[in-house]
Records
---
Amino acid sequence: MSEVLLFHHALGLTSGVLKFADDLRQAGHKVHTPDLFEGNTFNSIEKGLAFIEETGFDEMRERGVRMADDLPHDLVYAGFSFGVLPAQKLAQTRPGARAALLIHSCLPISGDWSFGPCLTASLFKSTQWTMILFSSAKVTSSCARDR
């Protein structure tokens, strides 16, 4: 199974994000859930975005990128909404990336990706969620719910 680095959304590391990580663990994956907000959670996107703006979007993204420093390189990088910023940057720039799971967001696709030229993009959408999966490996299982 895969090892996943999962980044939270602008509300912080909420119980919904942790439940999603637990679902992945129950499916056999090893999942890391760093807290970019150092324990802060918010009850509105506006409050979460205000917190991000205080620190700076670039700094917050780089904080997420640094979270991967002590982890193996062959990870699946995943993020919900705001968490897509560090997940996508790592997937595009860190050698060894296995896949990118970008949920509720995606930045413009440009440049080379660390998993090379065999890139598959899949868009999954329902009334509750949108997930974009980029991978060069065969995907054996995936799940997403409104979190």
---
Amino acid sequence: MQSDIRRELERRFSPEFRNRIDDVTLFAPLTTDDVRRIAKSYLLQLEQTVAKAGKTIQIDEAAFELIATEGYCKAFGARFLKRVIDERIKLPITMNWNRVPTFTFGSRSSRSRSTPCQRNRPSARTLWRIWKWRSSRTP
């Protein structure tokens, strides 16, 4: 397998670029169990951080599955998982921090959306341009 990859590198890339590559490491694609373990680890860290402030987080199994599903993409692995947790869990906690001591996330509070792999997200620069254009039009 390594020799096949080396041949493909030689065929596709210039010698100058190939000389910058020290080693080729092969990775197996993540399984859904791997993604669940990663999500559980992220959420455990978040629970510990919130617990230091005397607050708690409750996430039911359906909401956890939704987070794991939205955060996984076969092409990119769990690259979007942190972003999904930020959008689905951290942002609502931040918005309601002073209102409640316990943050509950259930299947009713979590609506399914397209996964980050499926959506075509605008860049930060594009969002900034849209905001600038809208704010210049506001009377």
---
Amino acid sequence: MQDKFKDECGVFGIFNHEDAARLTYLGLYALQHRGQESAGMVSSDGTRLHAYRGMGYVSEIFRQEELSHLPGRSCIGHVRYSTAGSVSLREAQPFLVDGYRGQLALCHNGNLPYANEVREELELDGAIFSSTSDTEVVLHKIARSRAVDLVGAITDTFTEIEGAYSMLRTGFIRRSRCRSSSLLTASSNTFTSLDRTRSCSAARLTRAVTRWVNSSRASARQTLTSLCRFPTPESPRLSATRRNRA
């Protein structure tokens, strides 16, 4: 077993910004060190989801033409370094599916230790998988939830999942034939059911990305990390949660 730290995948998302796809592209470029096998993005224009994935580096996959096909004010992206599954385009994230509750795109970084066991149970029950990634197991669990809507199905699924992960989801919810809405959510877990949401101001993020373009990559990466940081162990919110759990 190697005793040195290794970066494993990266996720990035933008909500409610007119240049969501381009900002996500720059965010993934800054996270390129976390994965060089493949990259992908899914955007939401409020009526449907748009996806593009490819093998290789972010700058090689996403040119101006590809970005123009990712309209909308919300976007999630992923760069992949495989910790589970094979290396091919079908493993590239985000995964995009369409069900009776609506469209859902999902990407994640981390490990789900019980994914193989759950996958075998789902396959015995008739489920068909298109990849070897454990991320697809989460999509199947969401699809099989008994919840009425997509938000409820996501909530049910993530109360059961165990592992160490960060995950971004964006979707288009079908409430009825004439009413629908879009969503973008994030969650993180560290071998517990404690969720921590990553958030940062689009305006502040824009300034950080602009700083990255005009200055050094390392300086911008440090800025982006500080803007999108999860609560630390000393965080009052996390400490209070631990006291309540005790």
